[in-house]
What we know:
alpha/beta, 5-stranded mixed beta sheet, 3-stranded antiparallel beta sheet
Amino acid sequence: MLTTSPKAWLSLLAVLPALLGGCHEQADESASKAAVSAAPATLGPAPKLERTVRIGYQKIGAPFLLKSRSQDLDKHLAEKGAKAEWKEFKHGPGVLEAIKAKEVDVGYVGETPPVFAQAGGVDFVYVASDPPAPKAEALIVRKDSPIKSLRDLKGKKVALNRGSNVHYLLVRALESAKLTLKDIEVVYLAPGDARPAYDSGKVDAWVIWDPFLAAAENAGSRQLANGEGLVDNRLFYVARRQFAQDEPELLRATLDEFQALSNWESKNAEEASKILAASSGVAYEALLLTEQRHAYGVLPVTDAVLDTQQKIADSFSKLELIPKEIKTRDAFLPAAVYAAKP
């Protein structure tokens, strides 16, 4: 059995407080380190996420020109902590479908695609328009065609891009000759497919817009009718409604750049034609003719413009080209309408 002398016990009792105090200090230090490790790091304010304007474009028209000359747009958006993102489409209806899918914020389309889109539940708003350009679309036949007038179209095959601006031109042109869509055979073809079908005689006539119209005319096609006295043929700037509501500053900056582009294009038709020819594969001469028929400027959407769009919608509803009646003013957001700075 081990024994401890009284002196040894007294020595142990003398140092015990120091030993216990050291243990407490180590525990406190460990707890303090753990607390520091667990505390979130202070890094200052979180960086602001970059905002984006997603612009739908085709290889012809204002958006492509803006994309090719985007330095000013990039600069002005960067000043607002934003950037532009470009998405390419083959036609206007595709741009509006992308707006429906929340993949595009701003687009540029003809007067008819918005009517089909609104009837199809696309949540967009009209924000600006080009001036009317009725000569920039027409119903044409080949130079050797026996068809001499609109009345001669009865029973014939007519090609067009479904839901595009020329859809309404065809309806109005037939009405002027006391015909309806039921009096002809409508063949729905995109421009890239319609041209070979038209050239080969698989369709008898083609209703088409510039620059494809200009290219066909340069190859000898004849016009039976263009939009004069029948349609306005406006091009519209449209925006996803939520984007227009949430980002009015970015929408305005984008439309300001389209206005600046239109001013430039009106004075530089040859250069604009060269840019578009290089991107689209359409002949420079056809694009130059297109520029000559183009109407320049970015205008506000007025009551009169919406009334014209309503006439298109009413006509298509009557013809059962759209699934339901619509009110074009439902696609109008006054706060988002563009007006050029004084």
